[in-house]
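Lab notebook, bench 4. The sequencing result for the construct came back, and we need a structural model before the next group meeting so we can plan mutations. Quick request posted to the team channel:

Model the 3D structure of this chain.
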Amino acid sequence: MATAITAPLRVAVVGGGPAGSLFALYALHYGAQAGREVLVTLFEARDFNRAGSRGCNMCAGIIPADVLRDLRGLNLTIPPSLVMGEIDSYALHTASGCLRVTMMDPDARAVTVFRGNGPGPGLPPEPISFDSFLLAEAERRGARVIRQQIEEICARPRRWVRTHDRVYHCDLIVLASGVNGSVLPAHGLPYVPPRTEAMAQGEVFLGSPEVRNRLGSAVHVFFPRSLPVVFGTLVPKGPFVSISLLGRGTESLTIREFLGLQAVQRILPEGSRQVCACRPRIAVGPASYAFAEGFVAVGDAGVTRLYKNGVGTALVTARRAAETAVLRGIEEKDFREHYGPLCQKIHRDNRFGRFLFSVVAVLMRSQLFSTRYMLVADREGERPPDEQAMRRILWGLLTGSYPYEEIFRMLLHVGFERSLSAA
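Done. Here's the predicted structure in token form:
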């Protein structure tokens, strides 16, 4: 039986987005459970309550049911004022028409939020930032928040992080700064950031009644033949619609080009007012050496799911890393034994994800295959939910509700080629 660790643990968390805030929340939670003093200092220079690009964290902002459930496990409920909309279906715009995939589980409610304080005019005066909510909760529960940017970290011979005017010593450094900032000088660490791809992100303003009328409570997914993307999405968020374009080839692509597609213009009116646009990078591979003695990277800085549910991966990596640090130890072997397997599992699962997204993108761009797929899916719509295998596959892939490997095995189980050829 392992001996309980009782010595105080001083933690410096670099980055106050979901991964950093959730690590702090879980570390304090496990510390309270174990009767161990955990002193968390969280560094975040950005004010997420500022509107526009200054507070934005560049994300589509879909929070799925499993994340909502896990937050409740921390006695956290997203305030209604932060919820911009609820999602109950996905509408796939294919080469042969539109296929609507509804929620497989009646309790699998997903919500949309702004990670920052929204793009500007047309929103309530009170703060609506999801990231600010998590950061404030971490501070309320005992984390110390310093509104400065970390400029340098060091793991050996002594551990410290440095802002522009001070050095902070600690026992554990948690890197939770994502992949869109500058690479920090890291002394005594072999850490290499994840491989990334550019995506295109933007918002258009329609007004809440028009958004409800045109998009309803569905995320609309497009597989355009004429653009070099895996897929593009329209996400309803109160008076705004968030646009995301993912996949290789988006570096030179503009949101305006996507809005000009005929299929998109059937949903959004021509001349829709674009209020912001950015080109964030997303992690498409794991970091190398994501942990070492007294160091661990969580969220995008460590490993994340391909294209889907980044907040969910931030949560599970933060939770496992916090549990390891507080209850097991902060040596390299502790992270290797208790945190490393989760990182490897996510990385392995992403290989299935890349294959699945490639296959679905090809199918949905094909008149022949998309027609056959829609026929199969339409027939399934008349059956009980547990017999709607093809719809469940799409729902799991689009929402990130199931591991990609599980979706792949579901695909093999139903006999994908046989189902299509028999349609």
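Residues 232 and 245 are 4 Å apart (CA to CA).
Will bring this to the meeting.
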